[in-house]
């Protein structure tokens, strides 16, 4: 079974600074997908960024980028020029879509990020 | 296009009562999921469905039942609620085909069992 570990329960950073959230995972599979979801106080889960394991290039979405280290099974999220609206819980998630009907997400326990004005 | 909606948003039950949570999606997605979110534990999969008329157990299925009679709806039932089922419940849906299946989430239902 796959496991996802987020070792930072809480983090805080000054507005406009850069912050990196850590995520490690454990799997024996070679083909999989990794995601970062954001959950603001509204509770709505929002996809921030995703990475396909077969791609060596790190995914980027505007101010959000990942550092994907497949051999180390590490998938960190970097938020540049942080904004107050980035305050939220961030969840790392893993999916192994190899088998039909197996497209299930396994989530980490989350990191609560607070952006300080 | 409402995306994924959940009914109700909040509910308080007494131990032993039953209730059904409704999830609806208007994106013609094949897959639908029910998760529960507890403090410090992230989201855990309860049940899921890969198509109309089919359901399967997830990581924490005990005490819950589900039905997918229509493609757009996925119901989560609690036959005899217990305090351990106090949680926030999220429904999600995704396309069946594609290189990866992004899951779209509903706004959640906060359930308290006294």
Structural summary, described in words:
Helix content of chain A is 0%, strand content 50%. With 117 residues, chain A is mainly β. In chain A, a hairpin with a 6-residue loop joins β5 (33-39) and β6. Chain B has 114 residues and is mainly beta. Helices cover 0% and strands 54% of the residues of chain B. Chain B has strands spanning 4-7, 10-13, 19-25, 31-38, 42-51, 54-57, 65-67, 73-78, 87-94, 104-105, 109-113. In chain B, the strands form 2 sheets. In chain B, strands 2, 4, 5, 6, 9, 10 and 11 form a 7-stranded mixed beta sheet that branches. Chain B is globular, with a radius of gyration of 13 Å. In chain B, 35% of the residues are buried. The mean pLDDT of chain B is 92.
Task: Specify the number of helices of chain B.
Answer: 0
Shape of chain B: globular
How would you characterize the largest beta sheet of chain A? Answer: 6 strands, mixed
**Helices and strands of chain B, in N-to-C order?**
EEEEEEEEEEE
Mean pLDDT of chain A: 91
Greatest interface (CB-CB under 8 A), with counts per chain? A-B, 24 and 24 residues
